[in-house]
Amino acid sequence: MGTIAKKTGTLLLTLLLVSAMAFLAFQIIPGDPVTKILGTDYTPERAATLRHELGLEGDLSARYLRWLAGFITGDFGISYSYMKPVRQVMQGKLAVTAALSVLSWLLVLLFSIPLGIALARYHKGVFARAAATVNQVFMAVPPFFIGILFTYLFGLLLKWFVPGKFVPFSESFWGCLGYLFFPALAIAIPKAAKTARLLVSSIMGEMQKDYVRTAYSRGNSRWMVIRTHVLRNALLPVVTYLAMSLADIVAGSIIVEQVFVVPGIGRLLVASIASRDFPVALTIVVIIAALVVFMNYVADLVTQFIDPRVRLS
Amino acid sequence: MIDTHNRTFRAGAVITGIMLLIILVGLVWTPYDPNAMNGAAKLASPSLAHLLGTDNFGRDIFSRVVQGAGATFLIAAVSVAAGLVIGVVLGGLTGWYGGWVDELLMRLNDTLTAFPSILLALVLIALFGSGKYNIIFALGLLFVPTFARIVRMEVAKQKELDYVRSARLMGVGSMRILFVHILPNIVPVLLSTIAISFNNAVLAEASMSYLGVGVQPPDPSLGRMLNEAQSYLLSAPWYALSSGVAIVLLVLGFGLLSEGLGGETDA
């Protein structure tokens, strides 16, 4: 119990540190947004009012605390480009990215574990060797290139979906899921390939150990040894990796949303960076960053939970 | 294990070698001027005259891919080199001296390396703006923690070894021990990290240029070509295919090299 409390404390501290770093980073950008927004309409009175509205008064620490208090209560500030609350600009987009990421993560899970086990089980077979080589290539294909290939093959040639025509969740649940399937798969393929590779080397590493020799000596087949003895241990690093990879998948969706014109926070992030709409960019960066930190925390806890050896130390 | 590593390494060396050779030749000679437009041959399919076809301006795609791969490679090389130099110095010093500065920097490092590199790169681009040099700067900065971490760990390990102790007893200065005695012993570990960083740099540059916040026109880049090619998918699929495959080959080559050197497959 003590360790969980300690880790939770570290989690909160890291979250605070990360948010402060992100906030500071967006503060050191030269240029005054107020002057820029007002342009030729600039008068000192108007500037003062706007400065108040945008929360740009006071010194750095005061601004940070005000922003942090707002962030926790769901007030993310005001977008420079739209002059609307960031919350309104982000309306519905977070859910889209969340759906895309979770779908993609499930696909990784679905593909990688059976594939990794099969590759390790038949590691000397011709087919498994060929599959391992293909797997190696898949690891190197960037998700946005897979996305473009999917757009061409399934969108333009086979017409299974209309590229760029996102189906909102409110319109049709299955239509939305169907549209998100291809971007999710594009993100999942390299990730699943890497996960399968990790599982294979993890299993191979375990196979060198003494308890495996003992298991063999009792007359178990290779498959029996893998299934009943090795897999439990070999899955440990994979579970940790999978927990942490959710953050990578969200980062991957930043780019793939662009390919498929999915209206999620990734597309919004890129647009806000291009138009220097920093309140929006800061909000999205902090949300993703918090997710990264949180998933690492979860991965840590999961490892502790399933591996008594780590729990002891 | 050794055997497969060697095979992996060889495969990576062959792919990277061929790509490098094409890039080097491309510096002095390409079949066409990569920027020469030809109104008569717009979106021509691959043929003997144009190996990979032409784009929407009638420019030879093969020549453009060669030039783009060169630019991507150069950006990766400079940013990895910058990250390496700063990372080695920082990691070496903190690993050697330890203390609270070491503690603080490593905490910061751990936090930074946990983040997806594309997110950090985007933040840096937001801060400093897009363009070739800013990409190099952003990526270089990204690689510092990776190298610093590894060097620090290795130095901390090596400084307890006998050869370092005896060098100390003989009165060799700290800096000389650190950079002349210890550093050469770390090189093998560094090599695989360099390869995987190349891999990441190519991916990050291509991603950001694809998003339109990386390399800007008229500078060539594989990511930007892929972005442009997406508009002509139906009429000229070979455009997207060629630039995409070039990225895959670069990434694959360095990935295999890193794995063959005994490093991580993913970073």
Mind sketching the topology for me?
The complex is a heterodimer of chains A (313) and B (267).
Chain A: H1 2-27, H2 33-38, H3 44-54, H4 60-72, H5 86-90, H6 93-121, H7 126-140, H8 143-157, H9 173-207, H10 210-217, H11 222-260, H12 265-274, H13 278-306, H14 308-312
Chain B: H1 2-28, H2 61-97, H3 99-113, H4 117-128, H5 132-158, H6 162-169, H7 174-211, H8 222-230, H9 237-260
Describe this structure in words.
- The complex is a heterodimer of chains A (313) and B (267).
- With 313 residues, chain A is mainly α.
- Chain A folds into two domains: 1-89 and 265-313, no CATH class; 93-263, MetI-like fold.
- Chain A has helices at residues 2-27, 33-38, 44-54, 60-72, 86-90, 93-121, 126-140, 143-157, 173-207, 210-217, 222-260, 265-274, 278-306, 308-312.
- In chain A, helix 7 (126-140) crosses helix 9 (173-207), helix 9 packs antiparallel against helix 11 (222-260) and helix 11 runs antiparallel to helix 13.
- Chain A is flat, with a radius of gyration of 24 Å.
- Chain A starts with a helix and ends with a helix.
- Chain B is mostly helical and 267 residues long.
- In chain B, 74% of the residues lie in helices and 0% in strands.
- Chain B has helices at residues 2-28, 61-97, 99-113, 117-128, 132-158, 162-169, 174-211, 222-230, 237-260.
- In chain B, helix 1 crosses helix 2 and helix 4 (117-128) packs across helix 7 (174-211).
- The model of chain B has no long low-confidence stretch (mean pLDDT 84).
Q: Work out the number of β strands of chain B.
A: 0
How many discrete domains of chain B?
1
Category from helices, strands and their pairing of chain B: mainly alpha
The third-level CATH topology of chain B is MetI-like fold
Sheet having the most strands of chain B? none
Shape of chain B: elongated
CATH superfamily of the largest domain in chain A: MetI-like
Mean pLDDT of chain B: 84
Poorly predicted spans of chain A: none
Residues in β-strands, percent of chain A: under 5%
Strand content of chain B: under 5%
Q: Report how far the terminal alpha carbons of chain B are from each other.
A: 21 Å
According to CATH, what is the class of the largest domain in chain A? Answer: Mainly Alpha
Tally of contiguous helical segments of chain B:
9
| Average pLDDT score of chain A | 85
Work out the radius of gyration of chain A: 24 Å
Helix-strand pattern of chain A: HHHHHHHHHHHHHH
- The structural domain count of chain A equals 2
